[in-house]
Every structure is written in C-alpha cells, then in structure tokens.
Amino acid sequence: CVCVCVCVCIERIERKEMSDVEETLKRISAHKGVEGVVIVNAEGLAVRSTLEQDLTNQYATLMSQLTAKAKSVVRDLDPTNELTFLRIRAKKHEIMVAPDKEYFLIVVQSITPE
C-alpha cells in the first residue's frame, strides 16, 4: 500500500537514513498509478522530487499551505491531537501527504477508472 510506504519514508527522512529513503522512494514510485513523489522541508521548499521542476514547486508551495492549515484545524478541534496524514481525492488524482516535524512527503497518484 502506498500509504504505508509514505509513512515509512517520512520516518527514515527524520532519522537521516538517506540510502533507505532512496530505496523507499523507488518503491513508492513503482506503485501502480504513482505519478510523482516530492519531499518538502519545513520552509516549504522541495528537497527531492520525481516531478518536473515547475510541478514540483507548485505542489511544494500549495501543499505546504494546505498542510499547515489542516494541522491548525486539527489542533483547533482538539489541542491534544495532531495531523498525521492528509489524503485528497479528486477526479484525476489522489494526493497523499505525510507531515512530520522537519519534512513532509507528497505522493501524487492517478485515479484508475473503475
């Protein structure tokens, strides 16, 4: 499952296990329908991506803003809670975000017609 790989990858990024991160990114990218993976730092800048530069910057900027807002909403609803995963499903794509302290991981996956 892509979601499990995403969570494992963000943990490895936090522990600075970069060779494991590369391996996990390859595994995520190999999943059916995955169009791109972006790792974004706390400042909202992409530090690693499999997408084209313009698209990488767009996802990094917009998803940083959305993730910050989602974190805030979760805290406002319950100050003892925190956002651990964000999943957005649209007509064409599903965007999965795994936020953490220093980085967050974005996976863009195409929706397969049923």
Write a structural description.
With 114 residues, this protein is an alpha+beta fold. Helix content is 45%, strand content 27%. It is built from three helices and five strands, in the order H-H-E-E-H-E-E-E. A hairpin with a 4-residue loop joins strand 1 and strand 2 (46-49). Helix 1 (2-14) packs antiparallel against helix 2 (18-30).
Top keywords for this entry?
single chain, 114 residues, alpha+beta, 5 strands, 45% helix, 27% strand, globular
Chain-wise SSE layout:
Layout: H1 2-14, H2 18-30, E1 34-41, E2 46-49, H3 53-77, E3 86-89, E4 93-99, E5 103-110
Antiparallel strand pairs: 1-2, 1-5, 3-4, 4-5
Indicate the structural class.
alpha+beta
Q: What portion of the residues fall into strands of 2 or more residues?
A: 25-35%
Gap between N and C termini, in Å? 18 Å
Uncertain stretches: none
- How much helical structure, as a percent, in the residues? 40-55%
Counted beta strands = 5
- Mean pLDDT, nearest integer? 85
Instruction: Please report the number of helical segments.
Output: 3
Name the strands of the widest sheet in spatial order: 2-1-5-4-3
Rg for CA atoms: 14 Å
| Overall geometric form | globular
